[in-house]
Design a protein that fits this description.
Distance between the termini: 47 Å
Number of helices: 5
Strand order of the largest sheet: 1-2-3-6-5-4
Number of strands: 6
Radius of gyration: 15 Å
Strand content: 25-35%
Largest sheet: 6 strands, antiparallel, barrel
């Protein structure tokens, strides 16, 4: 059988759903992403080869220090890229969904508390620094976003099944 992009994605989805991945990935994936992003001056985000990604820059909820976190995202609207069904880079509008899955680990990731405390932040999207405002989704809006995220990356369902907390979903929009 030939190796296709769809097969690679399926294999990665299966691996990313494994409990061992949840233990190892949080220590490896962000570090690799930060290093490659820095070396390429914001042009390449390693994990974005499978899923679209941003580097979120937001002040720490407690420290106030600027924190940079590489994150998978789901583009929406005119700024959509892979997985969103629209041409990359089209227009300057759009929004993104960020999901606080924490690789299916029990606690919320720190960046979600940072966004709750400081919703005005910045993302680096394909080498462009973009000022954004984040909003935690709830109710029907969250339900619709969750459904879209599961269609976009099915392993999120596995992450949610492993934890008792409700996984936080943020919509970030350009300021």
């Amino acid at each position: 059988m030939p190796v296709t992009a769809a097969r690679v994605v399926k294999a990665v989805q299966k691996v990313s759903s494994a409990p061992a991945f949840a233990r190892i990935a949080p220590h490896v994936v962000p570090a690799l992403d930060r290093a490659v992003h820095r070396l390429t001056r914001g042009k390449v985000l390693l994990s974005a080869q499978l899923l679209p990604g941003v580097v979120l820059s937001v002040r720490g909820a407690k420290s106030g220090q600027l924190r940079r976190t590489p994150l998978a995202c789901m583009p929406e609207g005119a700024g959509e890229g892979e997985g969103g069904g629209k041409e990359e880079g089209k227009g300057s509008g759009g929004s993104w969904l960020l999901i606080g899955s924490n690789f299916g680990r029990t606690g919320h990731p720190a960046w979600t508390a940072n966004l709750l405390a400081h919703p005005d932040a910045e993302v680096n999207w394909k080498g462009e620094d973009i000022p954004v405002t984040a909003r935690l989704l709830a109710g029907e809006e969250r339900d619709a976003a969750w459904k879209a995220l599961l269609a976009f990356w099915p392993p999120y369902a596995t992450y949610q099944a492993r934890v008792e907390r409700e996984i936080r979903i943020f919509r970030i929009v350009r300021r």
